[in-house]
Structure to design on (75 residues):
């Protein structure tokens, strides 16, 4: 029997923070402003970031990396 649900990868906020070097608070700010879509964990208070949102996290990471290196950046 085939399952109706497709398997996809997700990241917790902590995993995303560690992987992309973005502070967790910053990720939550983007989530609260609706810039990053999340899935609410069905068994707890966690949120999960679907793989479709990873390009956004990469862009945010590049922005913060450039900012740390002293480059002029535009949001």
């Amino acid at each position: 029997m085939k399952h109706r649900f497709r398997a996809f990868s997700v990241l917790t906020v902590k995993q995303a923070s560690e992987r992309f070097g973005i502070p967790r608070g910053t990720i939550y700010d983007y989530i609260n402003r609706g810039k990053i879509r999340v899935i609410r964990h069905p068994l707890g208070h966690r949120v999960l970031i679907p793989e479709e949102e990873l390009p956004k996290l990469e862009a945010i990471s590049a922005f913060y990396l450039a900012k740390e290196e002293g480059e002029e950046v535009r949001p």
